[in-house]
Amino acid sequence: MNMVMHGFPVGLEMDVIYPNFQVSLRLISNNQLRFEIKDGPFARAKFVDIQVVPLGNSIYAVSWQEEDGATVTNVQDYDRGLVHSYATLPDGQFLRMSGTVVITHPADVVFDDRPQHNKSLVLEAMTALFQRHETSAVERLYAVNYIQHNPVIPQGRDALKALVADLSQDVYYEPGLMVAEGDFVAIHGRIRGWAEVPQVVVDIFRIEAGKLAEHWDVLQNEVPLMAELGGISMFGPGEL
Predict the structure, then answer these.
(1) pLDDT tens-digit map of 115-169
(2) Which CATH number covers residue 92?
(3) Residue 169 is part of which domain span?
(4) What's the distance, CA 180 to chain centroid?
(5) Among 10, 173, 174, 176, who pairs with 130 as Cys (CB 3.0-4.6 Å)?
(6) Number of structural domains, the chain?
(7) CA–CA separation, 17 vs 81, rounded Å?
(8) Cβ-based burial of 220 (10 A; exposed 0-12, middle 13-18, buried ≥19)
(9) 132 and 235, same domain (yes or no)
(10) Which of 202, 206, 149 has the alpha carbon at shortest distance from 178?
């Protein structure tokens, strides 16, 4: 059965540039591809049946076995434009290679899974740092050259880690509405203990290579709801 797997770029044609040779790939469907090696000792062209396993964040494990017994597994990383290939040849020789991707024909339908993955990353970062106060999450979730646009917080990941380590136990963040597009995520929330009164904040992040790379924020003291005026609260935990 030829079903389209959500996110897998069916129709994509690309050249994968390995250190010693080049492979052309055409993703015919989620269960078949064509590869061609034009030069060198591995030169050949074949259609092969494949199995595709999504690994998250536009990364797929694509594996197949050829008629001569050779087996190949490609880890195709479309976020970074890389293919990591692991092949066992009929004579038992094992090849382990990484190559860069050059797109020669776009996919038939373009899926972008980044917004959902990026929202999960931002939610984990905000709750890990400002709910659970986990300093170890900084290195795991933030880029080494992290850029901070809040003028009262020093630049870099180490400064952020020090900030989290010094947080009062009264600091507690509540996440709310999130909006994501491409490499950007905005999250609306409320933070207690950061200032004398609870504050409502919008944090904006830019994500690069699966980590938080840049940050902007706007904070406002929370104004209590005045029911007699028919007002609506500035923040509600039901937003998420």
Answers:
(1) 888 999 999 999 999 999 999 999 999 999 999 998 888 999 999 999 999 999 9
(2) 2.40.128.20
(3) 114-239
(4) 12
(5) 173
(6) 2
(7) 11
(8) exposed
(9) yes
(10) 202
Rg (CA), the chain: 24
160 φ, ψ (degrees, to nearest 5): -65, -40
Name the one residue in this structure whose structure tokens are 């989290």: 164
Q: Which of 240, 136, 129 is nearest to 188 (CA)?
A: 240
- End position of a domain, from candidates 105, 127, 162: 105
Same domain, 87 and 132: no
Is residue 210 very low, low, confident or very high in pLDDT (cuts 50, 70, 90)?
A: confident
Query: How far is Cα 152 from Cα 205, in angstroms, rounded to an integer?
Result: 17
Quote the tokens at residue 76: 């195709």
Fill in the amino acid letter for 162. Answer: A
Nearest-10 crossing angle of helices 157-165, 114-130: 40
The C-alpha atoms of residue 61 and residue 73 are separated, in whole angstroms, by: 7
Residue 165: strand, helix, or coil: helix
Determine the Cα angle at 120 with ends 216 and 211, to 5°: 55
| Residue range 4-16: mean pLDDT, rounded | 83
Q: Tokens at residue 183, please? A: 């490499």
Give the model's pLDDT for residue 180: 92
Q: Is the pLDDT of residue 112 over 80?
A: no
